[in-house]
Design goal:
By secondary structure, the protein is mainly α. It has 2 domains: about 90 residues, no CATH class; about 130 residues, Serine Threonine Protein Phosphatase 5, Tetratricopeptide repeat (Alpha Horseshoe), CATH 1.25.40. The chain has 9 helices and no strands.
């Protein structure tokens, strides 16, 4: 292999890493270097029924059912189910109606099976979809009660706390919970990188989390490419 070919190959890996990372870069990450960039957020859309929850779109391709562990001794707090459904004015009348109907159906399904963590997680997504971040947080917290080892639910809580509620310690807590459940998920280290680098402005922690990620997922091109930016 020639030197030129090797250089091209290395460049391709770095570009692939940055491309992978950019998929998860969200609203807090700004192009203006003076502004405080964002912690990435997942964009998820799903519907659910009483029989089964649908599969949310996630970077790892996992669904809520995959790691659901129902704990019969635990009781759901259904007080948040009476929360008003307030649709943003920016929604079209058709979208507003669909959003409201989907939340109403989920609420009714949860009332029948309140220990179904997957339904709570779907409600969290729907609440987030109408920009009700407090409602989304409450639903995801209930989901985590019944699916404590679900990395997707914990990650969504981290996003809600970090991107929208600006509670960075809580965001770190739930991203760490997600990592404990799925320690090889490279995107979770990227979440924490953005939290440390741009939310908390702690370059030392940002550097350390990338090194931690590369120990758990050796050779991950996205993590390696990010590490080069903070040296």
């Amino acid at each position: 292999m020639t030197v030129k070919t090797i250089a091209i190959s290395i460049g391709g890996v770095a570009l692939a890493g940055f491309a992978l990372w950019s998929i998860y870069a969200g609203p807090l990450r700004r192009r203006d270097p003076v502004a405080s960039p964002s912690i990435p957020a997942l964009s998820q859309e799903a519907t659910s029924s009483k029989e089964a929850a649908t599969t949310p779109e996630t970077p790892t391709g996992k669904n809520y059912e995959a790691t659901e562990t129902t704990a019969p001794q635990k009781k759901a707090d259904i007080s948040s189910l009476s929360r008003p459904i307030l649709i943003p004015a920016s929604f079209s009348s058709e979208d507003a109606l669909l959003a409201k109907e989907s939340i109403v159906k989920l609420v009714e399904a949860i009332k029948e099976t309140p220990e179904n963590g997957a339904l709570w997680a779907d409600l969290g997504m729907k609440r987030k979809g109408i920009e009700d971040y407090e409602g989304a947080k409450e639903a995801y917290l209930q989901a985590l009660v019944f699916m404590p080892n679900n990395a997707v639910v914990a990650d969504n809580l981290g996003v809600i706390y970090g991107d929208y509620l600006k509670d960075y310690p809580k965001a770190e807590q739930y991203f760490r919970t997600a990592l404990a459940a799925d320690p090889a998920a490279g995107y979770l280290y990227m979440r924490l990188f953005d939290l440390y680098q741009y939310g908390l402005k702690d370059t030392a922690k940002a550097h350390a989390i990338l090194e931690e990620g590369l120990k758990a997922a050796p050779g991950d091109p996205g993590l390696q490419a990010l590490l080069e930016t903070v040296r």
